[in-house]
């Protein structure tokens, strides 16, 4: 039975802001975890902790695991594109660029999602407002890329491309995930995380050391935040927001993640927000707003 959604309440708005703040802060914790762990290991711990926490939550509320070969084919793909690939690419990319820049560049996936949805669905077609929004957002992303090229050369280009590719991976998975909306949300999220573990755990032991001898407390706390808070808890809160107020309302978190990513990075690292970051943030938020206006 599908739950009837209602008009969003102030409590729903608060929960939405909470999720945006949590996801925006994840980029800082990736930077902290890189002190002792490699990018594959960070992605691995994130999905292992996330899958374990979500599986426990699903068990406590009585959600059964998905069934059916067709459903599991989609789950395996979503686990790769929504967790394994982007978690690794963001961790790898942040070796070369700042957490604030990562938070902005991953927003490129918002616009890729629109383009993919146009060709794969009947209810997300491109119109003039959406084209304008995509163009504005793309310019915002390019401001960061070309500004860095002028200031630093090509040294950070690989990191930028990796984070943008992560955003595109998220976007692709969101389109495929529409095939799973009939399944229980938390147990399905746990299943996608579990399949991501199948990709990442062997790679972590093959390419890196996911169990270093003396990791710092800071790195361990960062991994716990990424796996339990930014992945499992945020996914659970997201589920309750969608069930109460609908997916359209939840999609507005796209405004908040880059905003909080820049704010938390500036506060934590005590860095002044650079001109190119402010310009890029403004253009990306404007592009998302114009895109939503065309929805």
Report on the architecture of this protein:
With 295 residues, the protein is mostly helical. It has one domain (11-209, 218-293). 78% of the residues lie in helices and 0% in strands. The chain contains 12 helices and no strands. α3 (69-93) packs antiparallel against α7 and α11 (253-268) packs antiparallel against α12. The longest helix has 29 residues, at 217-245. The model has no long low-confidence stretch (mean pLDDT 82).
- Class by alpha and beta content: mainly alpha
What share of the residues does DSSP label as strand, in percent? under 5%
Average pLDDT for all residues: 82
Q: Mind describing the biggest β-sheet?
A: none
The DSSP helix count reads 12
Apparent shape = globular
Number of domains: 1
Q: Over all CA atoms, what is the radius of gyration?
A: 18 Å
Order of helices and strands: HHHHHHHHHHHH
Q: Could you list the spans in which at least 5 consecutive residues all have pLDDT below 50?
A: none
**Termini, distance in Å?**
27 Å
Helix content class: over 70%
How many strand elements? 0
């Amino acid at each position: 039975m599908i739950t009837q959604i209602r008009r969003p309440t102030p409590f729903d708005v608060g929960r939405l802001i909470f999720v945006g703040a949590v996801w925006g802060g994840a980029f800082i914790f990736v930077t902290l975890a890189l002190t002792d762990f490699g990018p594959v290991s960070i992605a691995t711990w994130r999905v292992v902790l996330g899958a374990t926490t979500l599986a426990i939550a699903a068990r406590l509320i009585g959600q059964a695991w998905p069934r059916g070969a067709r459903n599991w084919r989609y789950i395996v793909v979503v686990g790769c594109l929504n967790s394994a690939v982007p978690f690794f690419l963001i961790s790898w990319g942040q070796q070369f660029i700042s957490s604030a820049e990562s938070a902005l560049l991953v927003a490129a996936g918002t616009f890729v999602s629109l383009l993919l949805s146009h060709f794969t669905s009947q209810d997300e077609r491109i119109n003039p407002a959406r084209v304008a929004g995509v163009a504005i957002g793309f310019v915002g992303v390019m401001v960061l890329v070309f500004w860095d090229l002028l200031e630093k050369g090509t040294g950070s280009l690989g990191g930028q491309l990796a984070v943008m590719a992560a955003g595109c991976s998220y976007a692709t998975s969101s389109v495929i995930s529409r095939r799973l909306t009939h399944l229980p949300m938390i147990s399905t999220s746990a299943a996608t995380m579990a399949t991501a573990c199948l990709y990442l755990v062997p790679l972590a032991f093959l390419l890196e050391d996911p169990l270093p001898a003396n990791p710092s407390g800071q790195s361990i706390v960062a991994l716990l935040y990424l796996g339990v808070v930014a992945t499992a808890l945020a996914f659970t809160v997201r589920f309750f927001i969608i069930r109460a107020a609908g997916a359209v309302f939840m999609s507005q978190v796209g405004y908040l993640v880059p905003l909080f990513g820049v704010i938390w990075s500036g506060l934590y690292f005590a860095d002044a927000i650079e001109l190119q970051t402010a310009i890029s943030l403004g253009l990306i938020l404007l592009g998302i707003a114009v895109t939503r206006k065309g929805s």
